[in-house]
Amino acid sequence: MTPDDVRRLLKIGELPGAVRSLRPRADTAPVAELATATRALADAAGFEDLAAAAEAAAKRRGDPQALYDLGYACVEHGVAFLAVAPLRATLRLLPDSRPLLAELAEDEHRHAEAAAEIAEADPAADEGDGGTPADPDEAFRAFVTGVGTGWLSAPRDRVASPGPVPGSRFA
Q: Which bin fits 10, alpha (ψ -120 to 50), beta or left (φ > 0)?
């Protein structure tokens, strides 16, 4: 599906169909093409902030802030599947961005994909601040071993998590 195909669907008033038509290519389409299609959708839906973010991402293709803003706006407007490609592109530009990793993990509940992105990334050098382990790869492997196959099913004593805050409704 191309931006022109999206425009054709929008021209006949088929906004839901235009959104659905992008899902199969959302992960593989070039970000600029996806941004152009997203802008057409946003204009049709009256989402000015999403349209502006999509326009900025299409014009400033290598700008991590423009890409992040597009991804964030997609999540905010309920089309998180369109956020994955721009957020992934931003992650390639800013591999140590924790907020970005969190956003990518939450989009479409793709936690395994985010974990794979983290595992493939080269760790940043430790400048001796004591804030990172001596070997981040080793710490990550230990963490993954501790949580096993899922966050929710891992034993709390192996994840070193105190659990819910005592005053919360989950305690």
A: alpha
Contact of 24 with 1, CB cutoff 8 Å: yes
Can you tell me which residue has the tokens 């793709």? 110
Q: Please list, in sequence order, all residues whose beta carbon lies within 8 angstroms of the beta carbon of residue 1, skipping any fewer than 6 positions away.
A: 21, 22, 24, 25, 37
The string of pLDDT tens digits covering residues 13-57 is 999 999 988 888 888 889 999 999 999 999 999 999 999 999 999
d(CA 167, CA 50): 37
Q: CA Rg, the chain, in Å?
A: 19
What is the rounded CA–CA span in Å between residue 47 and residue 53?
10
- Spatial contact of 54 and 36, defined as CB atoms under 8 Å apart: yes
The pLDDT tens digits of the residues spanning 58-117 come to: 999 889 999 999 998 998 898 888 988 898 888 888 877 777 666 665 555 555 665 666
